[in-house]
Every structure is written in C-alpha cells, then in structure tokens.
Amino acid sequence: MAWLVKGARLLDPARGIDRTGDLLIDGGKIARIGGEIRADGEPETIDAKGCVLAPAFVDMHVHLREPGREDAETIESGTRAAAAGGFGAVACMPNTDPPLDSQGAIRFVLERAEEAGPVRVLPIGCITAGRRGERLAEIGDLVRAGAAAISDDGSWVESPLLMRRALEYARMFDIPVVTHAEDKRLSAGGVMHEGEMSLRLGLRGIPAESEVVAIERDVRLADLAGGRLHVAHVSTAEGVAVVRRAKERGLPVTAETAPHYLAQTDRCLAGYDTNRKMNPPLRTAADRDALREAVADGAIDAIATDHAPHPLHEKEVEFDAAPFGVVGLETALAVLLTYLVRAGHLPLPRLVECMTSAPARILGLDLPGLAEGRDASLVLFDPDGSWVVDPSRFESISRNTPFAGERLFGEIKALFLGPRRIVPRPKSGGGFLFPDEEAK
Questions:
Q1: Closest listed residue to residue 229, CA positions, set 297, 149, 292
Q2: What's the domain range around 387?
C-alpha cells in the first residue's frame, strides 16, 4: 500500500527538518520527501494541510500490567491505547506480577507484543530480583533476552551498594538504570504533596525531599560508578536543580517528567478526585513552572506518560485508600499541546523532540524519522483539532484520567508503522481502525 501525504508540516527536529511539503510512503518505507510530489501509480492521497507529520512518538515509561493485572490493562489494550495516542514504541515497566526479572519474563512480553500489539514494546527489566531490593537480578540475562533498561520502578533501591553495582553492570551493556527516586522513609503513608493543600485537605503529605534526596544519592553513585542514570517522573523544582547540576558537571544523567506534572498542581486535588492521585504526587505551581522551564531548556530530556491504569472500582474509594496512578497514553499529545505549546511555554519542535528522539536516544532505539529509504514510523496530527476527553471511549481498559471532561487541542489523524496505517476514529466515536478491521 502507498500513501501520499500532501501539504503537511514535516517536523523532525533530530534531522533539522521543519518545512511544509509532501511525503510518499510506499511498501512500508519513506520513498520520497519533497515540496510537491507527483507519484507514479495510484497512491492514496491524504490532504494534510494544517497538520503535522513527525516521527512516531516513543514513550519510555508505561505500565502494561500484563502479566498479573490483566483486569487493569493487557499488552494488547495498552499498545492499542499507545497507537491511538500516536506512539510507535513504548517501554514497559517491570512491576508486574510476577516481575520482569528473568529471561522468560522478558521474552513473554516480547512474544505477546508481537502477537497482539500494534506498536513496538521495549521491556524494562528489574534491577533487583523480584524488585525486593535484596540482590541484583541477572542483568546480563535480561539484556540478552531483550531488556532495553533496568528499573525497580515503584520502589527505590534503598541499598547504595546494590545501586552502585547495578550502575556498574549496566555500564557494561550500555543501558540506563531508571531510578524511581523516592525515599519511602520520608514519604511513607503520604498520599499527596506535603504543603498548604495537604494541611487544608487533612491528607498526609509526601515531602519534596523524598524525591530530592533520592536523586542526590543516585547522582553521586552514577558519578562513582560511571553508569548511565535516568531519573523517572521528576516532579519537584529541587529535583530539577539536582539533575541540572549533574548535567553541568558532565555526568551521564538524563531525566523525564510526565504531562500531568506539566499541566496540573496540588490545588487540583481540592475535590479529592482519586484520578488525580499519582506517585510522585502533583506538586505546587512553582514546581510545575520549574518543570516547564527544564523541559524547554533541556535539563529534562524527555516527556513520558507513566501510564498507570487501574480498574474503576479501585479508584472509587476514599482518597487515602485509592491506588496511585493515572492513564496517559491517549491524552499525552493533547495535554502537552494545550497546556504548553498553545500557552506559549514550549515550542512545538521541542515538544516533538521530547517525545521522539530524546527517549529513543536514552533507550538506544534507532528512530527512523523523516528520511528517505527508512521504514515508516510516523504520526500525523492536527495541532488545532479540539475534543473533549471522554474516558469511556479510551482504548485502555482503565479510565483513570485526571483530564476527564476537559476540552483539549491536538488530534491524532494517522499512525504509519511500516506497511500498516492506523487511523483513529473521531473522538466522538472512539476506537481506531487497522486496514483489515475496516473491511469487517
């Protein structure tokens, strides 16, 4: 199948491309890129005036829940949600049941994704066996099975010796160690950010220091061990400052944040909405603004969703009893366009970089991008298309979004992955189509 995309804004910051033009996809590859293309044969022509054609997004932090919590999400449903959000690849975290701490577990995820997933899945293996923080997992075996990184996400590796050894082993395989920077000796029992709002709402707080001291320690260990450290879901201004200083010293440290930290603050919890309960928690406006600045100037490298699905009944409880986590794959682009780009906090090319080449670089992933002869891995989106978030229409099994009912800007029009085109239905219709599904 061939497609001729006409009149799009072709945007690939990693290759210095930002211009209006046409692009021809033929046989699953980018055949031509130009101002105006007249193609031989009869490719399907797509009028993309006003739309952006960019590399398909890469999410380096998602929870697909399989194996163990298929009531919340499966590899199939999670990757369908990713495709609906414009993602061509996702890295899944290892806090499943059982955890991804063996070759068999890593291979299971890869095989399930190959069978059922529309997008590429990059498993992240455990740092410690069972994520128990007692001894290292067989890191070499995990990498040989296909792990793209290691992490005990959901838990911080409290032992500095174990973390040092993990960084040293990971250096041998040139993979990042992804740290969930939270000293639970400080945050234990907390359910939201510790500050004025937690006092007002009568909820136990999670101090910013629980994140900051954990990042500080792990940065020092990365300096000692020489391994690559990646800090997940940074949420505080002080955490940003630690990462910024590490980068200024030339240390191998990268970091991510998530759309919800860039859009909302702890004041959004005034109604005790459990769909705004996540870990780390929503912080203050000052923290949000520091994160926005860090994304803009590069102190924060990537934006990842931390897509964390939970069934409805688990969230429909008192705030203290509800689990942490929100879904984000299907709203990520629109949230970021609405709250950052349209509001003037971030230029569109930098946003695309944070969602494409930056996470791909950290994970060691070859990002085809907009280059002739390369496999198609592209997303077409309308940055001005608006829609109201209706969780009942999500591809994800779970509905726990903090943006329900909001009007957002940014609609995915198509995802091109090799010879396959995935076309989202209108947001009012829900779901999306593969070519073979369209005929049914």
A1: 149
A2: 2-53+371-438
The first and second tokens of residue 276, run together, are 């705004």
Q: Can you give the pLDDT at residue 145?
A: 98
Q: Give me the active site residues, please.
A: 306
Residues in the chain with pLDDT values less than 70? 425-440
Output the CA torsion 143→169→213→235 (10° steps). Answer: -20
- Single out the residue of 285, 265, 278 nearest to residue 319, CA to CA: 278
DSSP string for residues in 251-311: -SEEEEE-HHHHH--GGGGGG--GGG--SSPP--HHHHHHHHHHHHHTSS-EE---B----
338 and 382 assigned to the same domain: no
Domain count, the chain: 2
325 in the same domain as 433: no
Q: How many CB atoms lie within 10 A of CB 97?
A: 9
Non-local CB neighbours of 313 within 8 Å, separated by 6+ positions = none
Using alpha carbons, select from 44, 59, 58, 55 the residue that is nearest to residue 10. 55
CA distances from 401 to 281, 391, 394, 421 (A): 14, 7, 10, 27
8 Å CB contact between 326 and 278:
yes
How far apart are the C-alpha atoms of 329 and 314, rounded to whole Å? 20
Q: Which distant-in-sequence residues (6+ apart) come within 8 Å of 271 by Cβ?
A: none
SS3 of 166, please?
helix
Cβ–Cβ < 8 Å for 86, 412:
yes
| Residue that is last in its domain, among 363, 387, 404 | 363
Strand partners, 18: 11
Distance of CA 416 to the CA centre of its chain: 19
Please provide the distance, in angstroms rounded to a whole number, between the alpha carbons at the two ends of the chain. 19
Decide: 5 and 20 in contact? Cβ < 8 Å.
no
DSSP H helix total and E strand total for the chain: 15, 19
Q: Which string of DSSP letters, residue by residue, matches 338-397?
A: IIIITTTSS-HHHHHHHHTHHHHHHHT-----S-TTSBPEEEEEEEEEEEE--GGG-SSS
pLDDT, tens digit, 9 for 90 and up, residues 322-356: 999 999 999 999 999 999 999 999 999 999 999 99
| CATH number assigned to the domain comprising residue 146 | 3.20.20.140
pLDDT digits 0-9 by tens, 115-148: 998 999 999 999 999 999 999 999 999 999 999 9
Whose tokens are 């986590």? That residue is 325
Q: How far apart are CA 216 and CA 197, in angstroms?
A: 26
Query: How big is the chain, counted in residues?
Result: 440
